[in-house]
Specification:
The protein is α+β, with helices and mostly antiparallel strands. The protein is built from ten helices and 15 strands. Helices cover 33% and strands 22% of the residues. Helix 7 packs antiparallel against helix 10 and helix 8 runs parallel beside helix 10. GO terms for molecular function: nucleic acid binding. This is Integrase catalytic domain-containing protein.
Length: 346
């Protein structure tokens, strides 16, 4: 049946071909289908362990203060981003420089908390446009620094591989997560000068926001309002951060903790809006499409929700409009609420 076929392979343009075929031509047209595994269902992405394959990328440089003070000296810091290619979980490590020793230390910390990956992928040197010479040397296949790091990881059961040069589309599965982190992280941090501890705190809390996004409903039961997140595969439960009252968005430099919390909140707000805009598809209504049905899980849009919180609900009843289209649904989370279609994403 259709479900069993989708578990094994992906049919390229199958629906389009079926729509233009009648019953007599169906068999011949079926022969011309080009069966190919989709990028999301290759063997790398369906392993039953989250540490099997990881993707590595760097962000930076960022100014890092040695201490607090008006004339405190500063240096450059970098962020190593590890992406799981199975559940798209994110792990962030702050590193002091681009040397092999700093990278291996970050890799050791990652393995100590997340487990040792079987394969580690990274971009080749030519994909790091505008990067520092040390970074290109570190990630150049065949360089002395890379050989040292590769031997270090192979002794611990990890194989370091490179995607082809000038082919960033080979990393399309993880590029969205890396690009989203870099894009919002730079805009939230701005020109702020943080200490190493403060930078580590901001990076860790942003990591929690990224790992709290819903992937799919946990079950199809109408009374279940939970969704699986990358955090479920990392720690066994969701990362529901405790609510912190914040009466304004002004960053106060007299209170360093409020500064870090404000940066985290700003990142969460920007990232949540981006994800919701991607999940909420606004297709042209050229043809009739299947509407939400009672029992479907939906994501509610709430601008007042706390970071790492995703309000979910189940559809209880659908109210058709006068034109025959479904304009509003009755959903149930903690209470019954009536919402329009554009206030949710399924």
């Amino acid at each position: 049946n259709e479900g069993e076929i989708k578990c094994v392979t992906h049919v390229s343009s199958g629906q389009r071909a079926l729509n233009r075929c009648d019953s007599t031509e169906l068999h011949e047209e079926w022969k011309r289908f080009n069966f190919a595994f989709s990028a999301a269902s290759t063997s790398l992405h369906i392993q039953p362990t989250i540490a099997i394959v990881r993707r590595l990328d760097y962000a930076g440089p960022l100014p890092v203060l040695f201490s607090r003070g008006r004339k405190a000296p500063s240096t450059k810091g970098y962020i190593a981003i590890f992406i799981c290619m199975v559940v798209r979980a994110v792990h962030v490590e702050v590193v002091s420089d681009l040397t092999t020793g700093a990278f291996l230390a970050a890799f050791s910390r990652f393995c100590a908390r997340r487990g040792r990956p079987a394969v580690l992928y990274s971009d080749n040197a030519t994909t790091f446009k505008g990067a520092a010479r040390e970074l290109r040397e570190l990630f150049s296949e065949g360089s002395n620094l890379t050989e040292l790091a590769r031997n270090f990881m192979q002794k611990r059961g990890t194989v370091w591989k490179f995607i082809p040069p000038r082919a960033p589309h080979f990393g399309g599965l993880w590029e969205a997560a890396v690009r989203g982190f870099k894009h919002h992280f730079r805009r939230v941090i701005g020109d702020a000068r943080l200490t190493f501890e403060e930078l580590s705190t901001v990076a860790a809390r942003i990591e929690a926001c990224l790992n709290s996004r819903p992937l799919c409903p946990r079950s199809s039961r109408p009374e279940d309002f939970e969704a699986l997140t990358p955090a479920h595969f990392l720690v066994g439960t969701s990362l529901l951060d405790y609510p912190e009252p914040c009466d304004n968005r002004t960053l106060s430099f007299t209170n360093r903790w409020r500064l870090l919390r404000g940066m985290r909140d700003m990142f969460w707000s920007r990232w949540r809006q981006e994800v919701l805009s991607q999940m909420q598809q606004r297709s042209k209504w050229l043809t009739a499409r299947e509407s939400l049905q009672p029992g479907d899980m939906v994501l509610l849009r709430d601008d007042l929700c706390t970071p790492s919180s995703w309000p979910l609900a189940r559809v209880v009843q659908v109210h058709p409009g006068s034109d025959g289209l479904d304009w509003s649904e009755l959903r149930r989370s903690r209470r019954l609420v009536q919402l329009s279609l554009d206030q949710s994403s399924n």
